[in-house]
Each structure stands twice: as structure tokens, then as C-alpha cells.
Specification:
- The complex is a heterodimer.
- A 7-stranded mixed beta sheet of chain A has the order 2-8-7-6-5-3-4, with helices on both faces. A 3-stranded antiparallel beta sheet of chain A has the order 11-14-13, with helices on one face. Chain A has a two-stranded parallel sheet with strand order 1-12.
- Chain A has 3 domains: 1-47, no CATH class; 79-89 and 361-464, Alpha-Beta Complex (Aspartate Aminotransferase, domain 1); 93-354, Aspartate Aminotransferase, domain 2.
- Chain A is α/β, with parallel strands linked by helices.
- Chain A has 15 helices and 14 strands.
- By secondary structure, chain B is α/β, with parallel strands linked by helices.
- Chain B folds into 3 domains: 103-356, Type I PLP-dependent aspartate aminotransferase-like (Major domain) (Aspartate Aminotransferase, domain 2, 3-Layer(aba) Sandwich); 370-478, Aspartate Aminotransferase, domain 1; 488-517, no CATH class.
- Helices cover 35% and strands 10% of the residues of chain B.
- Chain B contains 15 helices and 11 strands.
- The longest helix of chain B has 37 residues, at 345-381.
- The chains are: A alpha/beta, B alpha/beta.
- Chains A and B meet through helix 1, helix 2, helix 3, helix 4 and helix 5 of A and helix 1, helix 2, helix 3, helix 4 and helix 5 of B.
Chain lengths: 465, 517
């Protein structure tokens, strides 16, 4: 550093040469390079990192990045009917106001004293989710639904001491891939057939595959393909009857109107909180929840942080802290439950804000309008010639499969034509579900006004003509 | 140096359920239009009775401004890095997260992107992914990066998954069932290996604070699947024999994963490639300046050499000959996925912008100043009564040091925890470090490049003052905090299943309906 022109950067206060010199004197060395004396020459990188010239002036940096980002066309500029694990919902302004606060945004792993606010906000998040799910224990969020589902089945494996999980054949593809990787070497993941007409789990196949090695059955409600699994109670009863557990993935935006899975026999419930006040962020807004009953055999199997309420030395004062910390890998490394670390805490705080704003009425209104608007979309799309919607018989929530195979057009062609009309059409399902060639997954939420749906239908009409 | 007469905000704020007034609303949802309800009715009738929610969730009912106020008050009861001199959270690399990067990430061109949009509509996003991939190849010397792992631990899990898939692809999956790590590597290096069924062998340190090379040599065998190791470890001592370790493991047929969650002190100085690693990862929320968010969302950017590129999670971003960016799913031996979609894009964007602001010279300056700051603190802490820096006496450290209050504790009875709580009275955070507590009464300081000498001096002055207090008035330290949000927390409920309360409803069931007493 001594032989080069000083580079004083706004992010690096002690890059000022005079300050540097004073600090070096204090340490008793003449150059920073001496501080690297422990790194032998053979390990030193003497080349130059080939990086672009810096844009140290903030204005120049902003201009550059904005120019790159301007190549994106966002869902705010178009009509977005994509779902499939990340959904367009309305984000209340207060949610952004809170998660952009420096105090939360830039905090990390402080103690429950100077970071009391983080502990309380996350305890409240756990508590608000607990009401929505009607369960007594919820974790500090993990990465996403994929991880939440993976950990849920591993928890089930440890609780039952069994090494196989049966999962619905319509499980979200990312979730299935993540779960398989996460279980590889320890548990096997086997899919259960589904009824081709309704999409629901084939209970005969489930009964045939459920053995004394089966730790749990996992299904999603609403399913990845949007239909509701109406036989949740029978699935749970079957699992329990054979000494296994029932794990259900749920969409929290549905739980103002749909029965929480705990009420039809789920032992572990998981899912994603992105619908609760978090922008889609190109998939960066995901965060996973796991909920169980307040029983030691469940609680002690969580890998996650679990924040609990406590007394302090001052009567009437709330304190917070880690419950059963010694089960975590922080405390006991590979003897802990899976692993714990940075995940998605800020989104947990945000989802708490969302639920506090919505209240019971808001969640009921949300669920209802999603039901109505998606039913309206299904009904109108179904009237188009050669198109079947929904592809699966029975009730749906938020998402549904549209079958274009009778229209003479491929999904790719339809989607391209809709894109030209400013519409992000439903996900082409042919890659992930070979049995659903010619089908697309559409998502309709509270952000889609009747006029938006009408525009979709008119555009489809043109495209299919 | 002056110690600040600090007092943190104390709102004595209710738990949110206590703010509920039946009937109040925080936000409204647009009702279905007449055309919609005329066509489909109330929507709910389509749901079978058994699946309809019978009793509404017992969420609180609160007007909008009160919800806002509640969370603003809680935010004031939290000490983010923007307000703190956040150097006491050693190993966590809490540095400045530039505001302009938050502004960029808040753009609808970022926030309102759906991950399954057509590639043609997300060229800017994919260009950012590809750009950061190229930058990190330069920093690491490795050949290809994935941004799908959403934390350092997730990146470790991905490395273990690649190790597993690699040996399976060579027919050695059954025989290579051990992973080696070291005691001063992050706990997740051991824990994530165990998640995938590996037997974990942990190498302890010798007197110089470095992993016992002899023990490691003995541990390596035909059963070795790989090694996962941090360098510098939590002690801040650079391991000059790191390449001997990788050579040992590679000769035995294992793979080498470098835990570079925190590479802040070595940017441009030493790289994974020269040290002989097959894989490495960088926590973008540590070294690359993206905000920690109270513990995520985040990114553990995972890099591999070309022979492992086919094992990465999918999709990865490629640039075609004609300059388009595409998502590439067909990697022959991919481990599949470790997270949904493409990872945490806002973190990737912010890290990209951070590198663009600093460039080659800036990255080197970050490392140099982080190391300068660290050794400056080392020279000062050693002079504080009761404090010491175990291992490697007289040697310089890289980006952090694990110190000890062993002597202070022996002399006065004051523990690290006591000092930690007293630091809160001066507006600072000091943490007790990761387990296991091999260093007695440990504390770890990592100054990064972000704090000025004056700020560092103020932090040191607080440590010095508390050490003095410990010797003159230990009860004062043991009674802390006085100026923080809350007083000493009674941990009695946390490990008792009959009393722990992880949610408000559990608290009400176990401890009654009244405010805590």
C-alpha cells in the first residue's frame, strides 16, 4: 500500500494516510504488509484481480447500476399471473417502513439487551403465526419453504426414528429437489401417486407405501398446482395409525378462510411467509416457517432459534431469549439438530408487521377475495374454446392449472404472445410435470382487479384465435 | 478518551397482543368487484365445509398508526450497526452496508421481479448475477459461482452435498463417510456435514492456536470424503500450512472446502486457488457489505473449480456468445437445489454494487485497513488489565482476535457475560463468541474497515473502564446493564418445557393472563 497513491474511500475512514501512519506506529510496524507476515510467499496472490474500474462516486455508481436494472421489465410494469412458490401480493407501506429501518436492517446477533427490539419483534412474529396456524410453537424463520419442508421431514425422522418420507406427487418441484438433496444419505424421499382427475393424493398408493420405516407423509394444501387436498384428515389418520407423523405445507395467505392443517391432524406445518408483506425480489423474499405443538419431543428437534419470553430482575418488565439453546449447532456443533445460522429474520419481522396490520378480519377478507377473483378467472378462462380451467376437478385457492392442449397452441407460444401484450402468463408445467404437457400454472391474488383478469381473458382470446 | 453517557431508548412497550381493541383495522383489502361476486358468489361456498376455517385466528386488532408506532419503538430498542460501533461481534464482520445499495434494491426493477419471469424480461438481473460471479472468480481464483445458498451455513451444506455427489459419481459414496474439520472452524462446518450423514472428525488446536497437523495427518484416510476448514480461524491467526492440509486431503482422494464466510482481511492477498481448495464460499453479508438484517436474508456465494462445476445447484447464469444472459438448468451432475429459485437477489445486487464502488484497489484497501484496525486493537487490548490474547504471542493477526478475560475473571469474579452486559450501558455490543469455549471467558473483536480510529478508541475506552470497574467495584459490573432496554433476564424458563413460552399463547397458557411479574 505504501508505494501506491492513497485511495481514500468513503466506506473506509482509516484509509487516510496520516491516520494509518499513527496506527502503524502504535502497533510498532512500518507497513501493513508486515501484518501479513504469517502468510507465506507461496500463498500470497501477487497478481491483479481483474475487476472493473471503481465507481467510487456514489452518483456514478447509482447511474451504472440503474442502467443495468433498466433492462428488467418488472411485474409493476406488466400484469403478472406467475406464482409457483413466489406470489404477487400487495405489500403494505408500513411493512417496508419497518424493514428498511437501520436499527433492524443493519443489526445482527446482538444480545437480548441492546437488541431487545429484535427479540421482541421475532417473538411476536412467532406468536402471530401461531394464531394463524393454531399451533403453540413457531420458529424464527429459516431460508424458505424448501428448507422448512426439508427440516420438517428430518425432524419427523428423528422423532419417529424412521428413515423414509412419503411426499405428494404434486409437491412443488423446487421443494422436492431441495428435500431430496437435504435427505440424501440419511432418509429416502418417495413420491405418492395422485388422482389424475382431482390431483389429490391417491390414498391406496399411500396405504401401500406406508411402512414401518415411514417417518411421515408430506403434502401441501393448497397444493403446488392450486387444488385443495380435501382428504387431509384421512391422510393424517393413516399416518398416525401406522406410527408416523403428518407434515403439511401451507400457504399463510389462505388461513383466514381455510382451516389450519393442525385442525385436520398435521403434526408439523411448514410453508413460506413471502405472501405476508414481502416483495417478490426475484425470489429473494422467501422465508420459511415451521410450526408444531408445544411438546418437548417436537421442540427439542428444531434446529432453528426459538425466542421465548422471560422475566427480568425488574418486576413487570418483559425480557426475551433463546429457548433450549443447547439443542442448536451453535452450542454442540455436529451433535446439535441440523444447523443454525443466518437465515431470513428480517422477513420474519416484516411478516409480523403484516399480520398485526391485517388482523383476523384482514386475513379473512384477503382469503375471500383471492377465492373470488381466482374463481372468476377460472370461470372466464374455461369459457375460451379449446381451453380447460381448472385442469383438476375440485376446490382451489389462488392458483390453478390451465390446460391449453386442446387449443392447438403450445404454452410457450401462448406465453410469448401474452408477453408481447404486457402479461406475464402462467408457468409452463411441461418441464416439471411431464404429465401436464400443454398446461400452465396461473396465480390470481388480491392485486388482480376484475379488469386485469378481463384483460388477460381478452388477450388469451386474441392469442388463441 | 471519553466514554459516552449513553442511554438506550426504553419504551416498556407492550407485547403486540396487548394493544388489541376489537374492531380496529390496520389495513384494508379491496373487496371483489360486483362483476366478480355476481359471477362466483362469496367464493367461500366453493370450499368444502370441513376445510373452511371455523374460528378466526386470534390476531390482534390494531389501527395502522399504532402498529407503526409499536414497531418503531421496538426498532429504537435495537442497536443496528448504523448506530453502533459494531466491532464486538467478532467473526460476524459487521461493516458498513452502503445506503445507496439499499436504495437500488428498493427499486421496482428489483423488488417487483418474479423469479419465473421470461429470461428476456430479467436481463438486468441476470447480468448482475453473472457480473458478481466474474468478480468472485477474481477474488477466489476459482472458476464458477452459485448464489443459491442463502447463508454461509447453507453454502457449507451445499459444499457437503457436492462432496457427497462427487464421491457417489466415482463409486466411492459408500466408503468415504468421514469429514474433517477443526475446532476453531464455524460450528456449521461440523453440523452441516452431520446433516448429510457424515461422521465428523474435529481436529483440535496445538499451543500455537493452529490445527494439530499431526492429528490431521492421522485422521486422513481412504474414508475421508473431504475437509471443511476456516482460515484464518476464529482466533484470527492465519494458518500458513493450509496448503499442506489441502494436499494431504487431496492425496487421500478427498475434496477440500474453504470456509471463507469471512474473507475480509485477505481480499486480494491470498486466495482459495493457491491454497489448493476445490470449493470456497463468501458470505455476501459479511465481506461484501450487504446488511445482516437481524440474521438474514443473506447469501453464501459458493465457488468451485471447473471439475466440480457440473455439480452446482441449478440454475446457473450463463452469457451467450451474442451477449444474452440465460438460466442454465442442465448440469450433468447437479446436486439439485439448496433453496428455491435463484437465491437472495437483493444481496447479490448489493454485493455487486459494493465491489463496483471499490474496485481492485478498494478491495485491497478494505483488507489492509481491516487488518490494520485489528492489530491496532490487539496492541491496545493486551494492555487492558485482565485481558489477554491467547495463542501465538507476538504474532500479528488477520481480521479478528479471540481474546480472553480469564485473568479478569480469576482476579475479580467478573465474567465475559458481565462485561458484555455492561458494554450495553455505553451503547456497545460485545458478544461471547461461538462455542466451544476453549478460550476461557472469550470475547472476539473484529473491527473491519468501517470504523474510524476515534470510534475504535471509544470502544476500547469502554472496555478499559469496565476492566477498571471490575477491579474496583465488581458488583457494579455484575449488576449491569443499567442504561439498556431491559435488566438482567431470568433464564429460568428457557430450558424448562413446563415454563418455556415460545409464543404469546403458550405464555398465557403457562403463566396466566396477566402482565409478566
Amino acid at each position: 500500500m505504501s508505494d501506491e497513491k492513497p485511495f481514500v474511500h468513503p466506506y473506509i475512514p482509516n484509509s487516510v494516510p496520516a491516520v494509518k501512519a499513527r496506527m502503524l506506529r502504535e502497533i510498532g510496524v512500518t507497513s501493513v504488509d508486515e501484518l501479513y507476515a504469517d502468510i507465506p510467499e507461496r500463498l500470497r496472490f501477487r497478481g491483479r484481480m481483474n475487476l472493473p474500474e471503481p465507481l467510487a462516486a456514489e452518483g456514478a455508481l447509482k447511474r451504472h447500476v440503474e442502467a443495468v436494472l433498466s433492462k428488467n421489465r418488472s411485474a409493476a410494469e406488466c400484469l403478472c399471473f406467475l406464482g409457483g412458490g413466489c406470489w404477487p401480493h400487495y405489500v403494505p407501506a408500513v411493512c417496508d417502513e419497518i424493514n428498511r429501518r437501520s436499527e433492524f436492517l443493519t443489526a445482527y446477533a446482538g444480545e437480548p439487551y441492546e437488541d431487545h427490539g429484535r427479540f421482541q419483534a421475532l417473538f411476536e412474529y412467532e406468536s402471530l403465526m401461531a394464531e394463524l396456524l393454531d399451533m403453540d410453537v413457531v420458529n424464527v424463520p429459516t431460508f424458505d419453504w424448501c428448507q422448512a419442508a426439508s427440516t420438517s421431514v428430518r425432524m419427523a425422522g428423528r422423532i419417529t426414528k424412521r428413515d423414509e418420507v412419503l411426499v405428494a406427487g404434486t409437491t412443488g418441484p423446487d421443494r422436492l429437489l431441495t428435500m431430496k438433496n437435504y435427505c440424501r444419505g440419511v432418509m429416502t424421499v418417495t413420491t405418492v401417486a395422485n388422482d389424475p382427475e382431482t390431483g389429490r393424493m391417491d390414498l391406496d398408493d399411500l396405504a401401500a407405501k406406508f411402512t414401518d420405516r415411514t417417518a411421515a407423509v408430506y403434502f401441501e394444501n393448497p397444493s403446488y398446482l392450486g387444488f385443495l387436498e380435501t382428504e387431509g384428515r384421512r391422510i393424517a389418520d393413516l399416518a398416525h395409525g401406522r406410527g408416523g407423523l403428518c407434515v403439511v405445507g401451507a400457504d399463510p395467505s389462505s388461513l383466514g378462510v381455510l382451516e389450519p392443517p393442525s385442525r385436520y391432524g398435521a403434526d408439523i406445518v411448514c410453508g413460506d411467509i413471502q405472501p405476508l408483506g414481502i416483495h417478490m425480489n426475484f425470489g429473494g423474499g422467501q422465508a420459511g416457517f415451521i410450526a408444531t405443538r408445544d411438546e418437548e419431543r417436537f421442540v427439542m428437534e428444531y434446529p432453528s432459534r426459538l425466542f421465548g419470553i422471560a422475566r427480568t430482575s425488574v418486576p413487570g418488565e418483559y425480557g426475551f431469549g433463546d429457548v433450549a439453546y443447547d439443542r442448536t449447532s451453535f452450542g454442540v456443533r455436529e451433535k446439535g439438530k441440523e444447523f443454525v445460522g443466518t437465515a431470513a429474520a428480517l422477513w420474519g419481522i416484516t411478516a409480523g408487521v403484516y399480520l398485526a396490520l391485517m388482523g383476523p378480519r384482514g386475513m379473512a377478507d384477503l382469503g375471500q377475495v383471492i377465492l373470488q377473483r381466482s374463481q372468476y378467472a377460472m370461470k372466464r378462462i374455461a369459457a375460451l374454446p379449446g381451453v380447460k380451467a381448472p385442469r383438476f376437478r375440485g376446490p382451489h385457492f389462488k392458483e390453478f392449472v390451465v390446460d391449453f392442449s386442446g387449443s392447438g397452441k403450445t404454452v410457450a407460444a401462448v406465453n410469448q404472445a401474452l408477453l408481447e401484450r404486457g402479461i406475464f402468463a402462467g408457468r409452463d408445467l411441461s418441464v416439471d410435470f411431464p404429465g401436464l404437457a400443454g398446461c400452465a400454472l396461473y396465480c390470481v391474488t388480491e392485486i388482480h382487479a376484475a379488469g386485469d383478469i378481463d384483460r388477460l381473458v381478452l388477450s388469451l382470446e386474441e392469442v388463441l384465435r | 478518551m471519553r466514554v459516552r453517557a449513553f442511554h438506550q431508548a426504553k419504551w416498556d412497550e407492550e407485547v403486540i397482543f396487548e394493544l388489541s381493541t376489537p374492531g380496529e383495522r390496520g389495513i384494508l383489502v379491496p373487496p371483489a368487484e360486483k362483476a366478480v361476486s355476481d359471477a362466483v358468489g362469496d367464493g367461500i361456498s366453493a370450499v368444502p365445509e370441513a376445510l373452511r376455517r371455523k374460528t378466526p385466528p386470534a390476531l390482534p386488532e390494531i389501527s395502522q398508526m399504532r402498529v407503526l408506532k409499536h414497531y418503531l419503538r421496538l426498532s429504537q430498542e435495537n442497536l443496528g450497526a448504523d448506530l453502533n460501533v459494531d466491532i464486538g461481534q467478532g467473526t460476524c464482520t459487521v461493516k458498513y452496508s452502503p445506503k445507496v445499495n439499499d436504495v437500488l434494491a428498493a427499486s421496482s426493477k428489483v423488488a417487483e421481479l418474479h423469479p419465473l419471469q421470461d429470461e428476456s424480461t430479467v436481463q438486468g438481473a441476470l447480468e448482475i448475477f453473472h457480473g458478481l460471479d466474474l468478480f468472485l472468480r477474481e477474488v477466489s481464483g476459482l472458476d464458477r459461482f452459485s448464489f443459491q445458498p442463502a447463508s454461509g451455513s447453507a453454502a457449507i451444506l451445499a459444499m457437503v452435498s457436492i462432496i457427497q455427489a462427487w464421491h457417489e459419481s466415482r463409486g466411492e459414496g459408500g466408503t468415504r463417510d468421514e469429514i474433517i474439520t477443526t475446532i476453531f472452524s464455524h460450528p456449521s462446518d461440523a453440523a452441516a456435514a452431520a446433516v448429510k450423514g457424515y461422521k465428523v472428525i474435529t481436529i483440535r488446536q496445538t499451543e500455537d492456536g493452529l490445527p494439530d497437523l499431526e492429528a490431521l495427518e492421522k485422521a486422513v484416510s481412504g474414508r475421508t470424503a473431504g475437509v471443511l476448514i476456516t482460515n484464518p480461524e476464529d482466533t484470527g491467526i492465519f494458518n500458513p500450512k493450509i496448503d499442506e492440509i489441502t494436499a494431504l486431503v487431496r492425496r487421500a482422494g478427498g475434496l477440500c472446502g474453504y470456509d471463507q464466510a469471512n474473507a475480509n482481511g485477505i481480499l486480494g492477498v491470498t486466495r482459495a486457488r493457491e491454497a489448493g481448495f476445490d470449493m470456497c464460499f463468501f458470505n455476501l453479508h459479511k465481506t461484501f457489505g450487504t446488511p445482516h438484517g437481524c440474521g438474514g436474508p443473506a447469501c453464501g456465494a459458493l465457488g468451485v473449480t471447473v471439475r466440480l462445476a457440473d455439480f452446482l445447484p441449478v440454475p446457473i447464469v450463463d452469457r451467450t456468445a451474442d451477449g444474452r444472459y440465460v438460466l442454465h438448468y442442465d448440469l450433468a451432475r447437479t446436486i439439485g437445489k439448496v433453496r428455491s429459485f435463484h437465491g437472495v437477489f437483493p444481496a447479490v445486487l448489493k454485493a455487486y454494487a459494493w465491489v463496483m464502488s471499490l474496485g481492485e484497489k478498494g478491495l485491497r484497501e478494505v483488507a489492509n485497513v481491516a487488518v490494520l484496525n485489528n492489530n491496532y486493537i490487539l496492541s491496545k487490548v493486551k494492555k487492558i488489565r485482565g485481558a489477554s490474547a491467547p495463542f501465538a504471542p507476538g504474532r500479528h493477526r488477520i481480521e479478528q482476535v479471540r481474546y480472553s478475560w480469564e485473568k479478569l475473571h480469576a482476579d475479580t469474579g467478573v465474567t465475559t457475560e458481565d462485561v458484555t452486559l455492561r458494554m450495553a450501558d455505553f451503547g456497545f455490543h460485545l458478544w461471547s463468541s461461538h462455542h466451544p469455549f476453549i478460550v476461557p471467558e472469550p470475547f472476539t473483536i473484529e473491527p473491519t474497515e468501517s470504523y474510524s480510529k476515534a470510534e475504535i478508541d471509544e470502544y476500547l475506552a469502554a472496555l478499559e473502564k469496565i476492566a477498571e470497574e471490575a477491579y474496583t467495584d465488581p458488583a457494579k459490573v455484575k449488576g449491569a446493564p443499567y442504561n439498556s432496554v431491559v435488566h438482567r433476564i431470568d433464564p429460568g424458563w428457557f430450558d424448562d418445557p413446563a415454563q418455556w413460552a415460545i409464543t404469546w399463547r403458550a405464555y398465557l397458557k403457562k403463566h396466566g393472563h396477566e402482565r409478566i411479574r
